[in-house]
Amino acid sequence: MHTTFKLSADYLVNDSLVIIIDDEKKLPGFFFSEEELNYIKSEFGNEKKNVVINRYKHLYCVHLIDKKKSATAIKESARKAGDLFVSAFNRHKFAHAAIVDFSENAEAVLALAEGVGLGNYDFLRYKKDKKKEAHAFNTLLINSKKLKDKDIELLQIAVDAVCHARDLVNTPQSSQTAEDLSKEFVKLGKQAGFKVEVFNKSKIKALGMGGLLAVNLGSINPPTFTVMEWKPKNAKNKKPYIIIGKGVVYDTGGLSLKPTGNSMDYMKSDMAGSAAVACAMYAIAKAKLPVHMVALVPATDNRPGGNAYAPGDVINMMDGQTVEMLNADAEGRMILADALHYAKRYAPQLVMDFATLTGAAAAAVGPYGIVCMGTADEKTKKKLSDSGENVYERLAEFPFWDEYDELIKSDIADMKNIGGPIAGAITAGKFLQRYTDYPWMHFDIAGPSFLHKGDSYRGKNGSGVGVRLLFDFFSNL
User: Fold this and answer.
1) What pLDDT is recorded for position 1?
2) 453 is catalytic
3) Which one of 118, 216, 229, 430 has the minimum C-beta count within 10 Å?
4) Cβ within 8 Å of residue 148, ≥6 positions away
5) How far, in Å, CA of 23 to CA of 102, rounded?
6) How many Å apart are CA 292 and CA 239, to the nearest integer?
7) Which residues of 73-82 are buried (b: 16+ CB within 10 A; e: fewer)?
8) In the chain, which residues fall in CATH 3.40.630.10?
9) Using an 8 Å Cβ cutoff, are 59 and 86 in contact?
10) 352 near 443, Cβ under 8 Å?
11) For the residues 261-269, what does the mean pLDDT come to?
């Protein structure tokens, strides 16, 4: 469900309200009866920071900021409160509410609103009775002297971008081939004002993208390679920033077939990296950030069709290197390698790739963070880490020692596409590094990209991870 945010000087006391305070003494008594005040205070005494008062025709919700927590934890608690409150609004079929700010923390107010917007997401494309199942809630007024219209505009853009990404990830491959996915990127470009060019299979062959073509061999649907560009006249960077997303719209594992249960059955989400970068581009362009950006998405499905590439095959990559393919389920790195090489023509300032690349990354950190590694300087890594903390898409940087290169050496080719039983996330990164000659970071989002149970405002299924991280990073440059 789409949520509209509005900054408002007024609110109605007979409407549902979310009251945010940073001190128990600031609890506005005029909103509540004596009995309600005693109940709220008793809940605070029991260490609860969120209280809901049911007035039958509306709800009064109170969120108490815990000033003992870090700024990061305060914002995350506020987001979770927003999800809690919007769930209550939807249970009671209330369409709108207002945040009334009695705190001194503008960031917490925005985070709470963000939690409302992200928590209100639903995906009903394939439901017969959409109207019956749709969330009732649709509008959140924000009454705060600490915020400006621009703050609300950026909040709206960020939430809309994440919801777009979730839609893409939640759409099954029966409705979203590589060509369909590219068409969705074209739509995003038209909505936000960035350029989109889609390369078809013949252009991909002409460019010699051997990795992308090899993965596509087992499919009856052609691959695509999408180039998105945002280049405003006031861009502050002379060299572009490039973001690359893995666009495997469905991954069977190819001839190295995955098991179905709890594996292949949710592999429609293997294009979550592409959704992250395309929807980050949407947010960046919609917000008119003064930064020159390029996004690249190689896209295909990975199938065990009659001509599928087979373990033991040697693949000629776009940059001239050769790869001994020993596992057809390590396909993401094959298509990303061509995109990383293609990025060299821009002489980029920084390249970042986002991919649901390895089960090893998901096993290492679960859904709680993003595994990363790369060759960017420490200042850039610090800024990325800070953005991860800001939006609570935290980064776990893995070691990137030279010894890991030894694990992907091949007897008959320049490299092999798997590294063995240890350090799988790192050897995948080492494979990708061989196609770079610029500052670069790799983000393995296999853990948090698709959630198998509800996780507060992140929801269930496609989470849209990576969009807010990138939008925050480029907003703060």
Assistant:
1) 60
2) no
3) 229
4) 7
5) 9
6) 8
7) ebbbbbbbbb
8) 160-475
9) no
10) yes
11) 94
pLDDT of residue 12: 85
This prediction's pTM:
0.97
Nearest to 274 by CA among 242, 296, 302: 296
Question: Which residues, other chains included, contact 206 with Cβ-Cβ below 8 Å and sequence gap of 6+?
Answer: none
- Rounded CA separation 317/312 (Å): 15
Structure-block tokens of residue 10 = 């007024």
**Range 160-475: architecture per CATH:** 3-Layer(aba) Sandwich (3.40)
153-170 residues labelled b (16+ CB within 10 A) or e (exposed):
ebbbbbbbbbbbbbbbbb
* Helix/strand/coil for 51: strand
**Is 258 considered catalytic here?**
yes
Please give the average per-residue pLDDT across 233-259, as a whole number: 98
Q: How far, in Å, CA of 412 to CA of 43, rounded? A: 68
Q: Which of 201, 246, 333, 468 is catalytic?
A: 333
pLDDT for 210 beyond 90? yes
* pLDDT tens by residue, 214-229: 999 999 999 999 999 9
Q: With 90 as the cut, is the pLDDT of residue 454 above it?
A: yes
Residue with tokens 């695509």: 224
Residue type (1 letter), 150: K
Q: In DSSP terms, which residues pair with 5 in a beta bridge?
A: 140
Q: How confident is the model at residue 104 (pLDDT cuts 50, 70, 90)?
A: confident
User: Quick one: average pLDDT of 255-263?
Assistant: 93
Q: Please check whether residue 402 is in contact with residue 420, taking contact to mean a CB–CB distance below 8 angstroms.
A: no
In the structure, what pLDDT confidence band is assigned to residue 431 with cuts at 50, 70 and 90? very high
Q: Which of 6, 26, 183, 258 is catalytic?
A: 258
- Provide the token pair at 140: 């959140």
Which regions of the chain carry the CATH code 3.40.220.10? 4-147
Residue 20 three-state SS: strand
pLDDT for 277-333, tens place per residue? 999 999 999 999 999 999 999 999 999 998 999 999 999 999 999 999 999 999 999
Query: Shortest CA distance to 235 belongs to which of 284, 289, 295, 157?
Result: 289
Other beta carbons less than 10 A from residue 50's beta carbon: 18
Question: What span, in angstroms and rounded, lies between the C-alpha atoms of 40 and 24?
Answer: 10
Class of domain 4-147: alpha beta
